[in-house]
């Protein structure tokens, strides 16, 4: 007791100096509060400095790896004798093995430690992003399987690295897809710097894979040279050449399996670049969430769900655009696979775009004006996923915008008065305007708070359903009366019993059809009730968002599954050269496909929060 009293009564030096001017209790309390605040603020400052230092170091690591890979790939392009494509594959194989080691360590070690994942970012890794990782990853695995089969058939002309590299790629894709599907929302709280370096190394590896896919046209050149040689041989201009001579590299033998591998490789080639871009975006969000503490303000208490109410004209117009687009796409694919596409197919394809793109632009402009008229609060909470959405929308749009400007220059410099050239010129200008207006509409909608009275509208919708159900007559009386009538049938008359049974079955079918009609009437009345209770601004935003969702889906399907008229029309290819235009298309086309897919996710969120 004595020691405790002495220890409690022993004041510090600062307390002695202030005891004459103020009572000791109050001065001590204020001093302790000030010291605790200063101590906590210094700890938070040190944590922020450590976090920025870790982000800077991991970012520098990724930058050096990307520059090294870019130097290797550029050396292959400009001097393929000193640095071959096999050297790039060996470098990428080493990087992928390092990434595999880190991913396995993260899955089995880091994420399973106590207090490793205390928070999960609800905005990170939405279902459509993770679904696209699985979709594009599956197609990328199939692409590498086709590449392995193609190289195995031409093993006399290929190296063993061309079989080993796709095998490691398949293992890398499967492991990375498993990580992103299960741990994309993690805010890891242990081993910060090691986790940041692992994530950045994986991002850098995906970027180098994307850059290699953009610039590597080896198999495409082999297929193109084979087609040219076959055409010249049938025309009598070139003699038969051995498949492994020095002029035409490897030529696929005239077998069905080799043709399947060739066609499958060309068809699935854009999915690999798409997979790399999607993985980079998810990994970047994970990197930003390392060591992040999420307060209760960032966690949504009631997450809005997608419900198809409040839209009538948007689905109708969007479904019409989708049906017409599928017909155009099928006609183009039939012409492209049977022979070289003629001018009529290109005219039909670009005419469809010229009609659809202005409608999408007008809808986006009207939606932006309605956003300006609405008095909604802006979402000012710090959210790395939301910031990344804006960056990806703006960055992915550069692919289609860049390709459009290259096409505009080529057309204006050659013959802009030709019918097909004028259609391509109009398509390019409208595509630039549509991307800009849609970006403004989506970004403006993403930065607004969800509608507050959504729950009230939901309650009124349920009340309307109960009111409609109460107004509709029941069927219990009719069924009970029928049962009472059937019990009075005489058992002696078999024919009458059969006839009565037929009438009973007919009555049951009639009653079931009546019930079905009444259920449809209930649903339609409740739908119209909820539709009428929305104000015109919310109704217009939902109509526009749903229409743009369907339009972006069809504009995603057409270039993703083989419709590439920007490369097959021959105008830009003859103007810029095969290799240059191949690199431009492989740079812009995957970005354009990624933009359409990302726009669908953003527009769905705008629809939900409207």
Automatic annotation (TrEMBL):
Compositionally biased region (Basic and acidic residues): 483-504
Look up and give the membrane topology term. Answer: Multi-pass membrane protein
Keyword Cell membrane set for record: yes
Indicate the family of this protein. Answer: Belongs to the otopetrin family.
Keywords on record: Cell membrane, Hydrogen ion transport, Ion channel, Ion transport, Membrane, Transmembrane, Transmembrane helix, Transport
GO CC terms: plasma membrane
Q: Does the keyword Zinc-finger apply?
A: no
Q: Which Pfam families match?
A: Otopetrin
Q: Which domain of life is it from?
A: Eukaryota
Which cellular compartments is it found in? Cell membrane
Q: Which positions, given as ranges, span the membrane? A: 56-82, 88-108, 128-151, 163-181, 193-213, 267-287, 308-332, 352-370, 390-413, 419-442, 544-563, 575-595
Where in this protein does the record put region Disordered? 1-25, 463-504
- Name of protein: OTOP3 protein
What segments bear the compositional bias annotation Basic residues?
Answer: 7-17
Q: Which GO terms describe its molecular function?
A: proton channel activity
